Amino acid sequence: MTFNEGLQIDPDRASSGGPGMGGKLALGGGAGGLILLVITLLLGGDPGSVLGQFTGAQDTQQTQPGTAGTPEHCKTGADANKYVDCRVVLTAQSLDAVWASELPKQTGERYVEPELVLFSGAVATGCGNATSAVGPFYCPADQTAYFDVRFFQELTDRFGSSGGPLAQEYVVAHEIGHHIQNQLGDIGRAQRDPRGPESGAVRTELQADCYAGIWAHYADKTPAPGGDRPFLQRLSDTDINDALSAASAVGDDRIQRAAQGRVNPEAWTHGSSDQRQKWFLTGYRTGLVRACDTYSAPDLDNPPALR
């Protein structure tokens, strides 16, 4: 999968930190805390209730998101095909185009673009202080998606995901999926019911996977603003398998098995590998927001749209 090379990357779509971002950030819990952050917050959700447990109030140098805008080397679709940070920004632009069209059409809600921050090391957010150990996340308090792009190599090396572009773009689409939940008033359900195989947290994460699938359904069809060419060239089966690989890599059962040699569904916050793949496919195959109603689904292992 590739972006159409002549597309222009918006120089103002992202905020990015320059050299020196990511200063000291005091963490509680040591390495164990970092592992818990990765497992708990990997690929999204509302980090506010968790970040505060690991960000120390003493001797903490908060780093604010930079104001430099999109990285200077990110100009066109060709750059997005070459550089991961450019790919994140152009994926966000593609998501903006898809959701600006589909959200009002399907729900009557006008799409509001979330902020996008690229950071390195550590960042201060409306949900608290965070380090790269958290992985990509969305903060409802400031309506911003945060990415340290070095995570994508970790996703491949540590978690065994495919390194294909759509694996990375799935992550971006998942985080913007949380923004859609925020707009529709659903994201708070995760905090009210924070863990377990049928929990609100799991249903919230699986819905964000489904919303990522909706983006993939339209991404190679929705024209970029000011032209008639879509952002992405036509998606192939290989592309979709890359996204499914990433979804599987961060399933709760797979992470638990790798970390502790056993699976404990009562501690799940994101859903199993199989569930994450199935709900992504639900969005991809239907393109329908109503098909992503995980909160009403009686069986998260069998999305109604896939039966």
Automatic annotation (TrEMBL):
<feature type="region of interest" description="Disordered">
    <location>
        <begin position="1"/>
        <end position="21"/>
    </location>
</feature>
<dbReference type="InterPro" id="IPR007343">
    <property type="entry name" value="Uncharacterised_pept_Zn_put"/>
</dbReference>
<keyword id="KW-0812">Transmembrane</keyword>
<keyword id="KW-1133">Transmembrane helix</keyword>
<dbReference type="GO" id="GO:0016020">
    <property type="term" value="C:membrane"/>
</dbReference>
<feature type="transmembrane region" description="Helical">
    <location>
        <begin position="25"/>
        <end position="44"/>
    </location>
</feature>
<dbReference type="Pfam" id="PF04228">
    <property type="entry name" value="Zn_peptidase"/>
</dbReference>
<protein>
    <recommendedName>
        <fullName>Neutral zinc metallopeptidase</fullName>
    </recommendedName>
</protein>
<keyword id="KW-0472">Membrane</keyword>
